[in-house]
Request: fold
Amino acid sequence: MREIILAGNWKMHKTIEEGESLVKCLEEKFKDSPLKVIVFPPFTAINATAKIAKKIKVGGQNMYFEKEGAFTGEVSPIMLKEAGAEYVIIGHSERRNIFGEKDELINKKVHSALENGLKVVLCIGEKLEERNAGKTEEVIENELKKDLDGLSSKDITNIIIAYEPIWAIGTGVSAKPEQAEEVHKFIRNLLDERFGDNVGENTTILYGGSVKPANIESLAKMKDIDGGLVGGASLKCESFFEIGKFLSKIKGL
Ligand code: 13P
Reply:
């Protein structure tokens, strides 16, 4: 059985104090929920939020692949773990497009995260012009191939894929459930072809891009969508909880 997950990527939001108060609220709301819930605070708030989080899991939004060294401004997987992170997002489109991260670097980060005992949320997704040019599958296949290079089927058990079409991020307009489902199915098939061992069937694939209480039900009805990676709507306790409530209901948890 694949795990159904609700993940909140806070991006560059929340001070320590704000993060603590959000996690306190989420702990209370989700305490009896069957869902796995993960939040991704900015680096500065990981430790403080992880100290409060019990039911809620905590992750980092990025990391560098080296353990330590002269890499000004970077954070290592060991540092993330020590701060209380169990997960790390790698390859978010904002890292790729604003900070110029390439698949080769992303692949090194994925290897390093797994070697250091972090679970990875690997983000992939196409730009609008790529979708309009009919290149969605090509982009997805290329990212998956390069980002997961050199990994075994066992490694993939510690990876969650997040399909985040770039044109749907922060726009208020999510992909249509059928559009997302088509890509999720495609990803699953690619994983099966590449790794065998039922990897495609067993890997959790999240959808991200303008997920909110009003659209999670129709997205979650799709059988290959195993939850959401939520940006804006994860910043408020109530809206994130609402998404979780609908998600568990549709998935019959
Ligand atoms: P929004 O939910 O704000 O569109 O962000 C999605 C995202 O990028 C999550 O990683």
